[in-house]
Amino acid sequence: MGKQGSGSMYQLARAMGKTTTAVVMAVYWLLPPGTAIAATETQSLAVDLTAAGASQYNIDHTERGIRLSPQARQDVGKDTEHQGFYVTAALGTQAPMRHVRPIMLARTPPGSEVMLELRGQTASSRWTEWREAMPESPEIVLPASAVRLQARITLVQRGPGQGPEVLGLRLQAPDPPHDEANTAPPAKKGEPVTPPVTTRVFATRIGQIGDKTANGHRIGTADRFVALPSRRALNANTYDKSYEVKICYPVTNRCVIAPIWDVGPWNIRDDYWNEGPVRQMWADLPKGTPQAQAAYLSRYNQGRDDRSRRVRNPAGIDLADELYWDDLGMTTNDWVMVTYLWTGDDLESVK
Q: What's the whole-number average pLDDT of the chain?
């Protein structure tokens, strides 16, 4: 599909500007260095940013936290952007948490930005989708109560300059805490289970050999991964298999399971497999309908994506070369059936 429709690391950084510029001013979670953090009797988890994370790219550790690597800053020209990310190790909670109040201390010089996302691991050992800290809310509400938390911090720099630096991060339960007894126990044998969401979407080939994916992998010709247009289902690294899809191509009658390593095509905040109230953007569209599909076929949003680019195909998923050519036997971009495996409990029936 090429650069135009993908959500590679470079293009993702460009799209973050409209949202994260406001986040820098959101004092309830992004505070100036030296700001005191109020003591609380509820849970409070301090994140050690000086330690090696579960995954990181273009990041240097300082005495207090993390920053973009000097090499990354040197490589940035006047009109370009660069980014790095850091995924923390999983943090165990004293009691299940669903509502989380993040407090981050960061330096964001002109032209730099920071984005924070959280996910939680439930008592059944499954990870929820990621949820982004937003300026209009002091809390991140996870899809389910979690016994372990993990944070992903993305640093962005536009043009030359010092770049952003994160000096501290603490994750607190609200005071007073919300009722976190929301997570249902795992289904027992014989009980009804929820099947994963399956939908028919248009698939395109990623290509972009040599580029980096949103989780730091350099794209090769023998890769087996996909891109979906939302960071909510982006695996933390190439070993993480929390978010996988099953793709079936009716023309060849072939199916394959693959992880999500990149963000795209077209949109970057379109988790179209979720219901309207949960969907990050385009909540008025039917569940299972990618915004690009509606824009291309029905001129939804005047036929443009979330970055005001004219949508030139209805793609809702991008496929790496090995999946596209060899596993599925595709010779042209086409419609496929996709099952989003992390969205249900009944996985044995679809794998």
A: 85
